[in-house]
Amino acid sequence: MQFSEQNKRKAVTFSYDDGVTQDIRLIELLNKYGLKATFNLNSELLGKSGMLTRADRRVSHYKITPEDVPVVYAGHEVAAHTLTHPMLPDLPDDEVIRQVERDRLNLSELVGYEVVGMAYPGGGVNYDDRVVKLIRQQTGVRYARTTVLTDCFDRQQDLYQFLPNAYHIMDFDRLMEMGRQFLELQPAHAQIFYIWGHSYEMDFMPGGWEHLEAFFKLIAGHDDIFYGTNAEVLLS
Question: Is the pTM of this model over 0.85?
Answer without folding.
Answer: yes
